[in-house]
Design a protein that fits this description.
The complex is a heterodimer of chains A (34) and B (235). Chain A is mainly alpha-helical. The longest helix of chain A is centred in the middle third of the chain and has 29 residues. The termini of chain A are far apart. The model of chain A has no long low-confidence stretch (mean pLDDT 91). By secondary structure, chain B is mainly alpha-helical. Chain B has a domain of 151 residues. Chain B contains eight helices and no strands. The longest helix of chain B is centred in the last third of the chain and has 38 residues. The C terminus of chain B is likely disordered. The chains are: A mainly alpha (34), B mainly alpha (235). Chains A and B meet through α1 of A and α1, α2, α3 and α7 of B.
Amino acid sequence: MTYLVLAYAFGVAMLGGYLAWSLRHLRELERPKR
Amino acid sequence: MNNYEKAATGAVALMLVAAGAIFLYAPTDALQGPVQRIFYLHVSSAIAAFASFAVVLVGGIVYLWRESAAADRLARAGALVGVVFTTVTLVMGMLWAKPVWGVFWTWDARLTSTLVLWIIYAGYLLVRRLAEPGRQAARFAAVVGIFGFIDVPIVYFSVTWWRTFHPGPVIVTDALPAAMLGTFLLTMACTLVLGATMIAVRYRIEALLDARERVSEPGVVVKARGAEMGTEPVP
């Protein structure tokens, strides 16, 4: 059970973290420059 | 909320539906117990990685054929997302191997060829980051991306070509009960939608970075400044 939890925790952290990071990066790039 | 954020929210919602099927609908495996549920995301991530590397292959071929900057951007986006999915596949596989095989890692044909796949595309990304942007780097990367794809069928067929610890194909051989197969197909479809969303977001980032790169080129800056001042740009 521990390995199941660890595996899904890693999967969610990696995929969710990457998606959140890339959306934040995109938002920064699309922000109009002064 | 922009369109990319809306698409990402939709993809996350689909992954939550898949999680519901994995933990609430799919039956527990009689031999391995709950740890077998790692299978659903582990295999779906591997398929999403193969699809992402297929995008790199197509992007590389189109770039070499037409020198299309859009194809090069698509290849860069596919490589990054493919490496993310391959990382998930490898780590989840290791965490499944420990309770089942007794070890996190063994130099088995499937595991080794997957690690080689990760190294090829991580190398591709490293080359793109370190090389001076331009035609030369894009052409070299396209060649690496095309030849790197040769490892994808090697990974897939490794379990049939060599004797391995890793189980053979279970989807095409009808080895799964209907509830497990349904859960797997749903998870795979949701993971592919997530992968496509990630590639679309990364493509947009690459396009904006390319536009910034062009603006920071000296000639373009002079041209832009000339236009701003109402004078002719220096040729």
